[in-house]
């Protein structure tokens, strides 16, 4: 007999939700996390879209350590010399289950893992799983240091940089064009200062994404999220293109932070943490096999993440995939059959849900971004010039509006703009 | 050519909490002679490591220190099969510890 019904590797969003559901269903669960507490190794932008969490924890708004509900969406097209912003707010952003909340993974992940523990899961912290025990391709357990522990099912929830999925399901190492590096500063400021500077009602929050040229003309973007007493400011850059730059990514971030549109909101803030983490960006094309005999792969370990520039989603995918993995595992354990064929219920659930539908919907997007470098240099400059033409009054006779707007377009080339617009619309 | 750097990343890293494993390096580079294209590959990491741990001094000499590692895995994706000898997670309880994340 195995030591546990299920071993979950990793106590991030996917792992803790899986462990919680399994324990709640009365299964014996061990969750192993390499950080000294859940969240100790984790970083995100970020905000979580609540629809996923609400299904698992209907009262999470009262219980979870959330930062602020996002009631302002800001999206900017940034150029080193200018910044064009759209600010959107709507009543819909207050609807439970359709809203989104900013989170900090230290407190948030500890709360999630605590739910699993309270439901009866055993959790070990500060121990990395080094290897998997396999037998004829079936996963039978894990190796951590000197110890070997066995389980009927192993759920891999070990994140974007999984060292275990290669052995479990033959996942290839992701390619540099499929991965981005993210870095972030956590900047402390008093709550009222944040609210005043970002035009927020007390307790409410903003998500602000910067597309265009936050990255010295290279493929990438930047973000600003408001927390209760701090601002998360960060930048993301796709690896394959970053290595052709002339500026290191941390210097790109510093230059972004000094931008006249970015510096004022964080002015005088105290930087208290500097973090780095990868984002899987390759979309559907990079999703490996998610099921094998005795094993399921969830969340970022399964590359279940979407980065559209104006919208980053990985935490809701992680929560839902953890939930589905638990459901498939429970059915398999009850049937006494943990073969890949039985566990394929997991991929069925994913296929039938937004997870795979959205990944498929946006499957052309990663290639579009990568192959349309104008988004990261020429278009921000084009919009800058249009807006300069529109707003700058210098006493020279005005040119007609048509020319104000079209001259910058001609600089890029009308055919290029049309082609890219068509490509973008198709990819989205 | 890499442009001038004005930011002090080491000062940023010093804000973080670490328990560095002094006994074992979780990431190690190959000897430059043992890897073809060592310099070109190394310079990718100078650009992409968010912690700025891959350094080249004014005379072009390379150095790497795993102590400030953020454990993101970027160098593994870029150079895991070229100039890295190995990439592991730090041993039990070691490495970076985010308080907020
Ligand atoms: C800069 C940035 C911004 C982002 N912004 C957003 C956003 O705004 N909204 C959003 O929804 N998503 C965002 N994402 C994506 C999101 O953070 C991830 O998709 C999500 O965290 C994935 O959750 P997970 O549980 O799969 O993995 P993780 O949260 O990474 O958890 C994996 C866990 O496994 C542990 N682990 C790893 N290996 C081992 C091992 N061998 N043994 C034991 N434990 C191990 C890790 O320590 C970790 O706790 C962002 C990501 C980045 C990097
Ligand atoms: S894992 Fe990340 S932070 Fe650590 S050395 Fe590699 S690139 Fe730098």
UniProtKB/TrEMBL annotation, chain A:
It comes from the Bacteria. Gene3D superfamilies: FAD/NAD(P)-binding domain. Its cofactor is FAD. Keywords: FAD, Flavoprotein, Oxidoreductase. It holds the Pfam family DAO. Belongs to the ETF-QO/FixC family. This is FAD-dependent oxidoreductase.
Automatic annotation (TrEMBL), chain B:
PROSITE patterns: 4FE4S_FER_1. The keyword Metal-binding applies. Gene3D superfamilies: 3.30.70.20. Coiled coil: none annotated. InterPro entries: 4Fe4S_Fe_S_CS, Fd_FixX. Keywords: Electron transport, Iron, Iron-sulfur, Metal-binding, Transport. Signal peptide: none annotated. The keyword DNA repair does not apply. PANTHER family: FERREDOXIN-LIKE, FERREDOXIN-LIKE PROTEIN YDIT. This is Ferredoxin family protein. It comes from Adlercreutzia faecimuris. The lineage of its organism: Bacteria, Bacillati, Actinomycetota, Coriobacteriia, Eggerthellales.
């Amino acid at each position: 007999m195995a030591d546990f019904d299920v071993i979950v590797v990793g106590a991030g969003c996917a792992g803790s939700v899986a462990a919680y559901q399994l324990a709640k269903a009365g299964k014996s669960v061990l969750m192993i996390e390499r950080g000294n507490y859940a969240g100790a190794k984790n970083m995100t932008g970020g905000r979580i879209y609540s629809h996923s969490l609400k299904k698992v924890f209907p009262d999470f708004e009262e219980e979870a350590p959330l930062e602020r509900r996002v009631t302002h969406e800001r999206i900017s097209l940034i150029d080193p010399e200018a910044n064009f912003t759209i600010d959107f707010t709507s009543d819909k952003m207050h609807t439970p289950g359709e809203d989104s909340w900013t989170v900090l993974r230290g407190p948030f992940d500890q709360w999630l893992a605590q739910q699993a523990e309270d439901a009866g899961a055993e959790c070990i912290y500060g121990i990395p799983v080094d290897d998997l025990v396999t037998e004829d391709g079936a996963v039978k357990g894990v190796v951590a240091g000197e110890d070997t522990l066995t389980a009927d099912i192993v759920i891999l929830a070990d994140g974007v940089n999984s060292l275990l999925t290669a052995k479990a399901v033959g996942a290839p190492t992701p390619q540099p064009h499929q991965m981005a590096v993210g870095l972030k500063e956590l900047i402390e400021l008093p709550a009222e200062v944040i609210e005043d500077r970002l035009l927020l009602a007390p307790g409410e929050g903003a998500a602000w994404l910067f597309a265009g040229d936050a990255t010295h003309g290279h493929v990438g973007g930047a973000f600003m999220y408001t927390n209760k007493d701090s601002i998360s400011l960060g930048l993301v850059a796709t690896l394959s293109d970053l290595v052709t730059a002339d500026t290191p990514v941390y210097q790109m971030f510093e230059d972004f932070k000094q931008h006249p549109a970015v510096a004022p909101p964080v002015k005088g803030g105290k930087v208290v943490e500097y973090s780095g983490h990868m984002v899987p960006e390759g979309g559907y094309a990079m999703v490996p096999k998610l099921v094998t005999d005795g094993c399921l792969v969830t969340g970022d370990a399964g590359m279940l993440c979407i980065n559209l520039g104006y919208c980053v989603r990985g935490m809701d995918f992680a929560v839902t995939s953890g939930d589905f993995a638990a459901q498939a595992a429970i059915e398999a354990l009850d049937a006494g059959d943990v073969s890949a064929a039985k566990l394929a219920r997991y991929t069925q659930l994913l296929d039938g849900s937004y997870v795979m539908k959205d990944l498929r919907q946006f499957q052309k997007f990663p290639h579009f971004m990568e192959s349309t470098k104008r988004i990261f240099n020429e278009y921000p400059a084009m919009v800058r010039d249009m807006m300069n033409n529109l707003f700058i009054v210098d006493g020279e006779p005005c040119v007609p509006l048509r020319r104000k707007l079209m001259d910058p377009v001609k600089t890029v080339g009308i055919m290029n703009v049309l082609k890219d617009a068509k490509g973008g619309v198709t990819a989205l | 050519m890499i442009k001038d750097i004005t930011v002090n990343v080491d000062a940023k890293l010093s804000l973080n909490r670490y328990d560095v494993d002094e006994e074992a390096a979780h990431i190690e580079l190959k000897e430059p002679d043992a890897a073809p294209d060592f310099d070109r590959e190394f310079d990718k990491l100078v650009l992409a490591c968010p912690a700025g741990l891959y350094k080249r001094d004014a005379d072009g000499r390379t150095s790497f220190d795993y102590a400030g590692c953020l454990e993101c895995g970027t160098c593994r994706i870029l150079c895991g099969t070229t100039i890295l000898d190995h990439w592991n997670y730090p041993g039990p309880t070691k490495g970076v510890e985010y308080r907020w994340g």
